[in-house]
Specification:
With 401 residues, the chain is mostly helical. It contains 20 helices and no strands.
C-alpha cells in the first residue's frame, strides 16, 4: 500500500474513532479530550489489536507509523505553542504568594510519592541499568503534572452547564496549573539533556546550550516581539515559523520538541495569537492530535494486567491522587485560602490529561519508560482526569459555587 493511500486511510480511521469517542465523552459530561484519548487507546492492542488483528497489522504495523509520527508532532507543536501563549506570567506575579504556595504543595508531595513508588515499579518491570535514576526522577515529575488546557476546558464546560466553579478557586487553580506546567517542562528539559549527554563535559555543554537558548528566547526574543510593530501578514509568517524553529532547536539539542514549542508560545504576545491565528492553530491541532492519541494507544501493553498489573495501577493512582489533592489543598490552605476552597483547588489540580500523555510519550521514546510502565501511567492520566468533574460535584455543596 502506497503512502498516498496509507496515510489518509490511517487518519480517516483515527479521526472517526477518536471523534466518536470524544462526542460520547461529552454526553457523559467529561472533557472531549478524555474521549479522544480513550479512542486512541481503543485503536491499539487493548481493543482493535485483539479483535481485528489483521486490520491493525495492515494499518498500524510499526514499520508504517513514521509519517503518522510526523503528523502527531505537527499537532503537538501547535498545541503546546497555544498552551505557552495562554500562560500569562504577569497574572502569576500579581498573585505570587498564593500561586507559589499552591504550586509548591501540588508538586512537592506528588513528586515525593512518585519517588517512593519508583523502586516498586523498578522491581516489577525494570528499566535499563543506566536509566534507573532517570526513571525515578521522571516518574516523580509525571506524578506532579497538571494539564492546564484540560483544566481550563473543564472550568468552561462547567460554566456552560450552569454549575460554575467559584471564581477565586478557578483563577487560583489555573494560575497554579500554569506555573506547574512551566516548571515541569523545565525539569524535564534538563533531565533529557542529562540523559542524552555522554560524559560530564558533554552534559554540561548540553545543559549550557539549553539555558542559553532559553535566555535568548526570554530576554531577547520575548521583549522584541512585544515592542516591534509588524503588518498582519508578517505576524502570520512569524507565528508559524517561530514555534517550528524553536521546536527544531530544542529537538536538535536532544531536549525534545515539546519544550521549544512551549517556550515559543510564552514569548509571543497573546493578543497577536488571539483571533484568526488561534483558530488556525486550533484547527491544526484538532486534525492532527488524534494521530498522537492513536500512537499512544499503540504503545500500550494490556497483557501486563494478567500478571498483577492491577495492583500496581492502584498503587500509582493512590500516589498520584493523594499527592495532588492533598498537596494542592495544603499549599492553598497555608497561603490563606479557606479549606473548603483549598480542597476544590486540590481536586482541580489533579487533572492531568493531554499534557501528561505528551510527557509520557517523551519518556517512552527516550527509553526511560518501558511499555508496561507506560501503559500504567497512561491509564493513571485518564482516570485522574476523568474523576475531576464527579469528585468536584461530590465535595461542592449544591448552594455553593
Amino acid at each position: 500500500m502506497t503512502l498516498l493511500v496509507l496515510l489518509p486511510l490511517q487518519l480517516a480511521v483515527i479521526l472517526v474513532v477518536t471523534w466518536a469517542c470524544g462526542a460520547l465523552a461529552q454526553r457523559l459530561r467529561q472533557p472531549r479530550v478524555i474521549g479522544e484519548i480513550a479512542g486512541g487507546i481503543l485503536l491499539g492492542p487493548v481493543a482493535m489489536g485483539r479483535w481485528m488483528p489483521a486490520v491493525t497489522t495492515m494499518l498500524f504495523a510499526p514499520a508504517r507509523l513514521s509519517w503518522l509520527e510526523l503528523v502527531s508532532n505537527v499537532g503537538l507543536v501547535a498545541f503546546l505553542f497555544l498552551v505557552g501563549a495562554e500562560l500569562d506570567l504577569r497574572e502569576v506575579t500579581r498573585h505570587v504568594r498564593r500561586v507559589v504556595a499552591t504550586t509548591a504543595g501540588s508538586i512537592l508531595l506528588p513528586f515525593l510519592l512518585g519517588a517512593l513508588v519508583a523502586p516498586v515499579l523498578l522491581r516489577h518491570y525494570g528499566v535499563p541499568e543506566g536509566a534507573r535514576w532517570g526513571f525515578s526522577i521522571f516518574l516523580a515529575v509525571a506524578m506532579s503534572i497538571t494539564a492546564l488546557p484540560v483544566l481550563a476546558r473543564i472550568l468552561r464546560d462547567r460554566e456552560a452547564a450552569g454549575v460554575p466553579v467559584n471564581a477565586e478557586v478557578a483563577q487560583q487553580s489555573l494560575l497554579s496549573a500554569a506555573l506547574n506546567d512551566a516548571l515541569a517542562w523545565c525539569v524535564l528539559a534538563a533531565l533529557l539533556a542529562v540523559l542524552h549527554g555522554g560524559g560530564a563535559v558533554e552534559i554540561v555543554v548540553r545543559l549550557g546550550l539549553l539555558v542559553a537558548f532559553t535566555i535568548v528566547m526570554m530576554v531577547g526574543v520575548r521583549p522584541m516581539l512585544r515592542r516591534v510593530s509588524l503588518e498582519r501578514p508578517v505576524w502570520t509568517v512569524m507565528l508559524v515559523l517561530l514555534p517550528a524553529i524553536s521546536a527544531w532547536v530544542t529537538n536538535a539539542l536532544g531536549i525534545h520538541l515539546f519544550f521549544g514549542a512551549f517556550l515559543a508560545g510564552i514569548c509571543v504576545p497573546s493578543e497577536h495569537v488571539a483571533g484568526t491565528m488561534e483558530r488556525l492553530f486550533l484547527i491544526v491541532s484538532t486534525w492532527t492530535l488524534p494521530a498522537f492519541f492513536a500512537l499512544t494507544g499503540l504503545r500500550m501493553r494490556p497483557e501486563l494486567f494478567h500478571a498483577g498489573g492491577w495492583t500496581d495501577l492502584l498503587l500509582i493512582l493512590a500516589a498520584a491522587v493523594l499527592g495532588k489533592i492533598v498537596g494542592g489543598m495544603f499549599g492553598a490552605g497555608i497561603a490563606g485560602m479557606p479549606w473548603s476552597k483549598a480542597l476544590r483547588i486540590g481536586v482541580l489540580l489533579n487533572t492531568r490529561g493531554l499534557v501528561e500523555l505528551i510527557v509520557l510519550n517523551a519518556g517512552f521514546r527516550e527509553g526511560i519508560l518501558n511499555a508496561q510502565v507506560f501503559t500504567l501511567l497512561v491509564l493513571m492520566a485518564v482516570v485522574t482526569t476523568a474523576m475531576t468533574g464527579p469528585l468536584l460535584d461530590l465535595i461542592t455543596p449544591r448552594n455553593v459555587v
